[in-house]
Design brief:
16 helices; globular
């Protein structure tokens, strides 16, 4: 092959995935290494950073071998990572705690205490919702409980920072990952003194904040040899998976909204500058020095459908299971579902929230429950989207990716609920492609982020059914009332 290739390395929650693309965005190969989880106590969720670093090395090696390309033709690798992880690290750079990931809820009491006192002020400075997911609240828990690794730590890092330190010997963090910690002030583009003081952490214990296009060189020889790449090949910082998913799907201009739904989900839009929601329903995370992304994440995407499938002991394929929902008209014959099985982030930011079926009658069957759950997930995304619209304006174009985007039924439901055309890329590796493109910008192979729009293979648009949209508009009004009324019971 005479073509050149680029890789996006995506540190997800469940796996590390390496994807090789050609310069035009065509996927050449992918290789995935699954991550293990540990739940030492109720509400705790941990991973082993050493295991994840090893998985990343093997994922890169596997993707290159699978692609069967000359290593000289792989010109750069960009990083993408899930947000909100936290590791205590000693002076030698070794982890002395597990990685507390976004799903870890142990700092719920600390988050609630901050919310009731100075939460609004902290949110206004950081743009990060007060929630147990954030390193800010995790550090408060560590400080208040005298967590030994916290007391012994020289540094605090995310999984992505830890891997970069292992490979390059640098302690650096990009704007987006810093912004998601709750310790960063996006207006000042620096660590926020008030949150540092509250957590007992100094700037010196955190990484240097850099651009997503920062080039990393000097990969350790033994690691390069294990990966099967040239030691001199440049890596590029990249960003958080949310920002890069928007970039990789092409939702980068004003009015362009991206919806991602896999195990969890999110709806996001890029903006110039910093836009913080006075109602505290959305986040505002930096991407570059002058752009940010506004949006809201949900804990409850495909994981809710998997729960229902397991509950019903349904052994069929996922597509056959979802197809049952097509037997039922929009509205599931009066059944509504609040999809808060896993607590919830946006728009209610309540870790204690619970799911609820409303309007169940003796005539309802399995297919009604499946449709109600699908609709509940979609209504929740729409509700987050309405909050986003207040901050960033009405959407002009909606892009969708993630595992659920493989369901034609759900894509049509999205188009109908949002009453908008839905655009879906041919590849579902949007975050990895966004990381790869950022790497191309970083090494000067392409001129801008915006150029990616010419290099995203896109499928046919899904058009809304106007009659269904009218029905869903009325149903959503009831859903929103129910969601707001139920808050007092959580």
């Amino acid at each position: 092959m005479s073509r050149e290739f680029v890789m996006g390395l995506d540190f997800g929650t469940t796996s590390v995935k390496a994807c090789i693309f050609d310069i035009n965005g065509k996927l050449i190969s992918e290789y995935e290494k699954m991550n293990s989880f540990h739940y030492p106590e109720q509400g705790w969720s941990e991973q082993d950073p050493v295991e994840i670093e090893r998985s990343a090395v093997l994922a890169i090696k596997g993707a290159i071998q699978k692609a069967a390309i000359d290593k000289d033709k792989l010109i750069t690798i960009g990083f993408s990572a899930a947000m909100h992880s936290l590791i205590c690290v000693n002076e030698e750079g070794s982890p002395i705690s597990p990685a507390l990931i976004w799903a870890d809820g142990r700092s719920y009491p600390q988050a609630e205490a901050v919310k009731k006192t100075i939460g609004s002020s902290i949110y206004a400075k950081t743009g990060t919702p007060i929630h147990p997911m954030t390193p800010f609240n995790k550090l408060l828990w560590m400080k208040e409980t005298n967590y030994q690794p916290y007391k012994d730590a020289a540094y605090f890092m995310s999984i992505k920072e830890y891997v970069i330190q292992c490979w390059f010997g640098e302690r650096v963090i990009d704007y987006s990952m810093a912004s998601a910690t709750g310790l960063f002030n996006p207006a000042a583009l620096d660590w926020e003194p008030e949150t540092l003081e509250m957590t007992g952490v100094s700037k010196e214990q955190l990484s240097e904040i850099v651009s997503p296009t920062k080039v990393l060189t000097g990969l350790k020889r033994e690691i390069a040899e294990e990966m099967g790449i040239n030691q001199e090949m440049p890596f590029v910082m990249g960003a958080a998976d949310g920002q890069l998913a928007n970039l990789g799907i092409g939702a980068i201009l004003p009015g362009e909204v991206a919806v991602s739904v896999g195990t969890s989900g999110a709806i996001r839009q890029f903006n110039k500058g910093v836009k913080i929601d006075e109602n505290q329903e959305t986040f505002c995370y930096s991407f570059t020095a002058d752009t940010s992304i506004v949006g809201g994440p949900t804990n409850n995407g495909g994981i809710v459908l998997q729960w229902l499938k397991d509950l019903l002991h349904d052994q069929r394929s996922f597509s056959d299971f979802l197809a049952d929902a097509d037997k039922v008209a929009p509205g599931a014959d009066g059944m509504l579902f609040l999809p808060y099985l896993n607590g919830e982030r946006a728009p209610i930011w309540n870790q204690q929230a619970k799911g609820n079926f409303y309007g169940v009658s003796i005539t309802h069957k399995k297919e009604h429950f499946i449709r109600a759950v699908l609709e509940g997930i979609t209504f929740n995304l729409y509700q987050i989207g309405k909050a986003l619209e207040r901050i960033a304006g009405a959407p002009e174009k909606i892009y969708v990716n993630g595992g659920l985007a493989r369901s034609p039924l759900w894509l049509q439901m999205m188009a109908d609920v949002f009453n908008a055309e839905i655009y879906v890329p041919e590849s579902h590796h949007s975050a990895a492609w966004g990381a790869a493109w950022t790497a191309l910008v970083g090494i000067g192979k392409v001129d801008s982020f915006e150029e990616i729009k010419k290099n995203i293979p896109m499928g046919e648009a899904v058009l809304p059914n106007k009659e269904n949209s009218k029905v869903y508009k009325e149903i959503y009004e009831n859903y929103e009332k129910l969601a707001k009324d139920m808050v007092k019971f959580f």
